[in-house]
Design brief:
- By secondary structure, the chain is α+β, with helices and mostly antiparallel strands.
- Helix content is about 20%, strand content about 30%.
- A five-stranded antiparallel sheet has the order 2-3-4-5-6, with helices on both faces. A two-stranded parallel ribbon has the order 1-7.
- The longest helix has 15 residues, at about 155-170.
- It is globular, with a radius of gyration of 16 Å.
């Protein structure tokens, strides 16, 4: 089932998400719904807080980058209770966007490589290293479960310049191809561009 995406300004996006229990009710269904939602919304990553679930889960599918990044075709993962244990390398600037902050793309500085530990959907433990674009996607989604948005990494001046656009998003004054939950509206909405 495709779930609505929570928009900028919603309090769930600012909470540090809680750990997932192995016997979490309806966990398999949530993960399946997240995959359907991410694909429907044309994202490459999605965190549980973005579908109004304050849980430490995110998913990524880097296959859209497989023609640009070696090995990306094999990176379609569910990350449960992830922990970034190390960030290393040069700081790299690259443009990022977010399903919760539609139509805004900004240059964000992130470390080039990470080491991360997590459980997959079958509760197998993983200790992995990622670099480049894959590390960036993971760091972006990891920020979501920490209550951080990519706009938090911007300069004060840049945030000031975006203030009215961000306010419009939180008030539902944005057109998207997927359903969204806006903090200042009672119901989710879907508008076509």
């Amino acid at each position: 089932m495709v779930l609505p995406i929570v928009a900028y300004g919603h309090p769930v996006l600012r909470k540090r998400a809680r750990e997932v229990e192995q016997n979490e009710p309806k966990l398999d269904q949530l993960i399946q719904n997240m995959w359907e939602t991410m694909y429907y919304s044309e994202g490459v990553g999605l965190a549980a807080p973005q579908v109004n679930q304050s849980l430490r889960i995110f998913i990524i599918d880097a296959t859209p980058y497989s023609n640009q990044i070696a090995g990306a075709e094999n990176v379609r993962h569910t990350f449960i209770n992830p922990q970034i244990v190390q960030r290393e390398g040069e700081v790299d600037m690259m443009e990022e966007g977010c399903l919760s902050i539609p139509h805004i793309r900004e240059e964000v500085a992130r470390k080039y490589a990470i080491s991360i530990q997590y459980y997959d959907a079958d509760w197998n433990f993983h200790d992995e290293y990622y670099s480049g674009m894959l590390a960036r996607i993971i760091q972006h989604e990891y920020d979501h479960i920490e209550g951080i948005l990519f706009t938090d990494h911007l300069s004060t001046m840049r945030k000031t310049m975006l203030r009215s656009k961000l306010s419009n998003i939180s008030k539902g004054r944005v057109e998207v191809e997927y359903r969204m939950i806006f903090p200042f509206m009672k119901k989710s909405s879907k508008t076509k561009t």
